[in-house]
Amino acid sequence: MSLEVSLIVANVSHHLAAVGCLILRIMFDRVLPMTLFGALSFGCLRRVGQVWVLQTEATPQASLVHGLALGHALLSLAFMALLTTLFVIRRTPISRRAAPTQMLTALGGTFIMWIALAQPSTIDDWRVLALADLLMIFGLAFTLYALGALRACFGLAPEARGLVTSGAYKWVRHPVYVGEFVIFLGALLPVLSPLTVLIFCLFCLLQARRAQLEEVVLSATFPEYVVYSQQTPALLPWARA
Fold this sequence. Notes:
Low-confidence stretches: none
Distance between the termini: 68 Å
Largest sheet: none
Mean pLDDT: 84
Number of strands: 0
Order of helices and strands: HHHHHHHH
Structural class: mainly alpha
Strand content: under 5%
């Protein structure tokens, strides 16, 4: 009887541990990032309202900067809302889970530029601000296009959830990183300083490492990715690998 009880207890413990792991995985894979980006979406919504009612001077330059700032705010809202949705609908990885160091690299590449954006403005020339908003609008639009192709295959860490070669992925292998580079290049201009340039360089290095890690995972999971990578450049459509 004691042996039977021990087996039952061991079986129950095993199932409880499995359920606990599943709950933790759901929390970290979906609930926490969905909550984070949902909060950021709410912040973007508030920003849209603030820019919408902002009083500006009745000059062509002021109107241009205001219009670009509003377009940037609206696209930022769409970007954050899409990320929130993608964290809910994304698939479970086909490949093994990312190692802690790989996850830290992904998180660093995702959030390090927020440190630069928190720095005080150093430039207030309307032409620089207009260029900054124009770059961010273009980058956001292209990133939304790329994320729309990813859909349920979206992820932060180097994990394979599926192979996407359509949409923006017909032109380059890492279109999301291209879009983010343009976004943060524009965001860098109003806060340009030695510190923010250093942060931007670290951001580029982290993103390059992320792309490298993703390619290793995708090549190991999908044999056809090797052919795709030989036919499709990494970042620039006119710079064939």
